[in-house]
Design brief:
Elements lengths: L8 E4 L4 E4 L5 E7 L1 E6 L6 E4 L3 E3 L6 E5 L4 E7 L1 H21 L19
Antiparallel strand pairs: 1-8, 2-7, 3-6, 3-8, 4-5, 4-7
Length: about 120
């Protein structure tokens, strides 16, 4: 099994495959050609064309095979995407919070002296 995530750019000849498992998620971006991807434990496969991306699952074997033409894939740790997503979600949450007004109702609790005679 070849180390799929040890290089930043993979060139895969037609009909050839590379496989590997990484300790953390990686983003695979197809820059040339078309590839078939299968992941250990997932019952369906994926076809990616130039411009498509795929995020791997840590610890699972991922097999990438080039279709009829030479394919190129860029590999990068996916952690920067996760950080970017967290920042984006935090920004959206902050915008929601800024535009909202909180309304509260203050009621006095009074005891009823109904029916009491003094």
């Amino acid at each position: 099994m070849r180390g799929l995530f040890t290089k930043q750019v993979l060139t895969i000849p037609p009909g050839q495959a590379v496989s590997g498992a990484a300790g953390r998620a990686h983003t695979l971006r197809v820059t040339q050609g078309r590839v078939w991807i299968t992941v250990e434990g997932i019952s369906h496969d994926y076809w990616l064309h130039a411009g498509d991306t795929f995020t791997t699952i840590p610890g699972r074997v991922t097999v990438v095979e080039a279709d009829q033409h030479e394919s190129r894939i860029e590999c990068a740790p996916a952690i920067h995407w996760i950080k970017t997503l967290k920042l984006l979600l935090a920004d959206v949450a902050a915008r929601f919070a800024r535009g909202r007004t909180v309304r509260t109702s203050l009621k006095r609790h009074r005891t009823c002296n109904c029916g009491e005679t003094t």
